[in-house]
Amino acid sequence: MLNAATAEVRAADAAPNPWFDVSYVTSNWESIVGYLGEHVRLTVAAVLLGALIALPLALLARRSRWLAGPVLGLSTVIYTIPSLAMFAFVAPFTGLTATTVLIGLVLYSLVILVRNFLTGLQSVPADVREAARGMGYGSGRLLWQVELPLALPAFMAGLRVATVSTVALTTVGVIVGHGGLGQLIIGGFNANFYRAEIVTGAVGCVLLALLADLLLAGAERLLTPWAERVRA
Amino acid sequence: MNLLRDAWVYLNDPYNWTRDRGILELLGEHLRISASAVLVALVVALPVGMLLGHTGRGGGFTVALSNVSRAVPTLALLTVFAVTPIGFGPTATTIALAVFAVPPILTNTYVGFRSVDRDVVEASRAMGMTGRQVVLRAELPLATPLVMTGIRTATVQVVATAALAALVAGGGLGGIITLAFAQQDYGVVLAGAFLVALLAVLSEAALALLARLVTPGRRFAFPAFGMRTASGAPPSAAARPR
């Protein structure tokens, strides 16, 4: 088995198999952009849905100590489940669809976001809250105008980690045929170890993650002009 | 409920456990790959982390390393190593997983060493301890909780991501899931998912217990993700996707 494997790799090496090939990228541009589009759509949807679910959960968990324990405990368990197993749990019910991948990704981003949202809300100083109440702020206005802005750094840190993680995790969606750029990675592996395709997918993922992180960092700067800029 | 019954039937059949490339053989391979990956990462990351933490240099490097590593999909590196002359199989898997196990151990060791009270370090120097004694007798014991957090994070992550190796013929328990997907046998897909998830949860519990034994009286809090500490240090539990 092992000998066969080595022999096969040597056979593949005998033919030119460069790590990167511009002609591969140009001649397959449309399919690469297609996979990239799926990758971006899945990531954006997963993080947005995750944030929409995480905010009320964090608010609930903050309201009562009894809820905070189970919410954090459950989130830890979900985060421990490997992505391959998560997609395999969901796939029998939703089939080989992008929905399967989306459900798994939402769960992971939810776990990251709920914890950071809760940390952010808890970091609002009690006297600030008291002062706002004393000035006649109702609970809705208090949340929107005082607590959310103060919790924003923790929120944004969570969004950045969730986004970068989701970009990387989306690749595992190949197991149901919807892995975005991951399709290129596994596609190249299955196409007789075609390195140019593998590296294009891998580098694309890393660049996408770094770009998303950069965009969110910029958004954070714009949203929190009052924050100290100690480090870049 | 047919699926659950199929999964149960699969798991309840002793032949599925003991046969060639059965659950037990794949589990053994999974654990061997994981253990060697963590060992390789320990040998590389622990001394470097201790050195950097002791001298206080390379903080920016460890932050950058742990941030960038989070952006690299595990699947990408598993595949890239599989198409080098190493060839696909357990060796390529072990190397790829070890690479991902380095950042959590390195970062946490560095942060652990940096967060040791400077007065303690000064006092041990004043008592005539050599550099090596300061590291091994003063800084390392005090940094143990964070070092253990790093080892725990790395180990659980390796055990969890080793499942992905099956996508590139790298061995391990994930093979049950990939094979069942190929055969469109969703009962077995569920059974495989259950086994892989259970292994990850058990390894988390085992490492938490180990950390508790090594550092008595310490409680582990739920850290938020990606938050910097007041000193600008990187997050202690370097979370990356599994």
From TrEMBL, chain A:
- Cellular compartments annotated: Cell membrane; Membrane
Tell me a GO cellular component. plasma membrane
Bilayer-spanning residue ranges: 40-60, 67-90, 96-121, 167-186, 198-219
The UniProt keywords, alphabetically, are:
Membrane, Transmembrane, Transmembrane helix, Transport
> What's an example GO BP annotation here?
glycine betaine transport
Q: According to Swiss-Prot or TrEMBL, what is its membrane topology?
A: Multi-pass membrane protein
Q: Does the keyword Membrane apply?
A: yes
A Pfam match is BPD_transp_1
Q: Does the keyword Membrane apply?
A: yes
Q: Which residues form the ABC transmembrane type-1 domain?
A: 36-216
Domain of life according to the entry: Bacteria
Matches recorded under PROSITE patterns: ABC_TM1
User: Which family, according to the similarity comment?
Assistant: Belongs to the binding-protein-dependent transport system permease family.
Q: What's this protein's name? A: Osmoprotectant transport system permease protein
Species name: Blastococcus xanthinilyticus
Automatic annotation (TrEMBL), chain B:
- GO biological process assignments: glycine betaine transport; transmembrane transport
Q: What is the membrane topology listed in the Swiss-Prot or TrEMBL record?
A: Multi-pass membrane protein
- What transmembrane ranges does the database entry give? 33-52, 64-88, 94-113, 158-182, 188-210
What is the name attached to this protein's record? Osmoprotectant transport system permease protein
Coiled coil ranges? none
Q: Report the PANTHER family cross-referenced here.
A: GLYCINE BETAINE/L-PROLINE TRANSPORT SYSTEM PERMEASE PROTEIN PROW, POSSIBLE OSMOPROTECTANT (GLYCINE BETAINE_CARNITINE_CHOLINE_L-PROLINE) TRANSPORT INTEGRAL MEMBRANE PROTEIN ABC TRANSPORTER PROZ
Superkingdom of this entry's organism?
Bacteria
Q: Where in the cell is it found?
A: Cell membrane; Membrane
- Which segment of the chain is annotated as a signal peptide? none
**Where mainly found?**
membrane
One Pfam family per UniProt: BPD_transp_1
Give a yes or no for keyword Hydrolase in this entry. Answer: no
ABC transmembrane type-1 domain: which residues? 27-207
In its UniProt entry, the species of origin is given as: Blastococcus xanthinilyticus
Q: Which SUPFAM superfamilies match?
A: MetI-like
